[in-house]
């Protein structure tokens, strides 16, 4: 009696994608340092050796996840570049913020990138050393593009003020990308693009409010009548 044939493994590309999806979800839920290669292999339903064969180690797998979503970062940077061209218009700041916010929230609501959005939120909050190369390659250019667009929309603001604006914006977006208790308390209430529009308005309004005193004081000499300025110097 012939021996039974071993079960057929899925095609190579399917196995690689299964490993990436499993790792992405586990890293997002538990963090890079906690997850093991064995857990990833079990979640992907592939032999343990295949993870090392395709990705060498856990760090290589982590970098592959970010590379897999690299096209999303490029699309977001193109949107920011387009918004930067219109940054001098009356609604320039809102357009810049919206160009940053909308792509990221789309990632969160898309099944193909939802776990990646949560992973990104986790790493933005507290990056692991192993994640640093991937963040430098794929995330830092996006943040730099956003900072440059903010500079174009707020030419009177200092670099330090713009850095604060970036931190405030990033904190608000991060709260929407990651797992949040409100998702369980108010299920289904985060509806993209409505939430993206509201969040963009919230961030842009907050930036204006925080930077308004500094920007106004920088403009004060130009707004003060010449005679009054002369009187102030005497």
From TrEMBL:
Pfam families assigned: TetR_C_30, TetR_N
Residues in the DNA-binding region annotation: 36-55
Keyword Electron transport: no
Domain HTH tetR-type: residue ranges: 13-73
Any one GO MF annotation of this record: DNA-binding transcription factor activity
Keyword annotations from UniProtKB, A to Z: DNA-binding
Superkingdom of source: Bacteria
PANTHER family, sorted: HTH-TYPE TRANSCRIPTIONAL REGULATOR RUTR, TRANSCRIPTIONAL REGULATORY PROTEIN
Protein name, entry field: TetR family transcriptional regulator
Organism from which the protein derives: Hydrogenophaga intermedia
